[in-house]
Amino acid sequence: MPTINNHEAQTEFIKGSSVIIDVREPGEFEENHIPGAVNIPSTSFKPEQFKKYEDVKICLICESGNRASQVQQRLSSEGLSNVFLMEDQMCDIRTTKKVTGWTIDRQFRMTLGLLLLTFLALHFLGIEEGIYIPIILATGLTFTSIIDRCYMRMAIARLPWNTNRKS
Fold first, then answer.
1. 79 and 42 together in one domain
2. Are 66 and 17 part of one and the same domain?
3. Which of the residues 25, 26, 139, 164 has an alpha carbon 20 to 30 A from that of 158?
4. CA-angle at 42, arms to 38 and 44, nearest 5°
């Protein structure tokens, strides 16, 4: 899979010979993104969304590179050869962006905490079925760390208050 150095991608972006496309969810994008990047979420992938960029290098970025890599593969299978995966992904890049409200990560941690508190309450009330909560959480966190893609975080980013987030 072709990759592109982030400095080179940004230099070409300034010249108008590349476009940086962030394939994260809108809430994640609003929280932190490269200035000038275009947001086309991988969850609503349609090849025609990328056709208008046929004459420039398409530089893909997401949080860890997994979603961007999947979009790159799908675009390559559609015949686009000008698609590059940026070497550094958003987990490696931090831009200064003022966020109103809670960040996606903070909402994720709160959700985990509330689920574990629910388990503890059920445990102390003697409701044995509550044991499924930590089992599901432990399994999910282990699995998502192996595949480096967190579905709970992505789901939180798609909640109504995060979808049209204004910074």
1. yes
2. yes
3. 139
4. 95
Alpha helices (H) along 40-83: 66-77
Torsion angle, alpha carbons of 54, 166, 95, 81, to 10: -10
- Report the C-alpha gap between 104 and 126 in whole angstroms: 33
Half-sphere exposure of 97 (CA within 13 A, CB side): 19
pTM of the full predicted structure?
Answer: 0.63
Task: Tell me the per-residue pLDDT of 23-41, one tens digit each, with 9 for 90 and over.
Answer: 999 888 888 888 889 999 9
Q: Is residue 80 part of a domain?
A: yes
124-148 pLDDT, tens digit each:
999 999 999 999 999 998 988 888 7
The count of domains in the chain is 2
Q: Are 82 and 54 in contact (CB under 8 A)?
A: yes
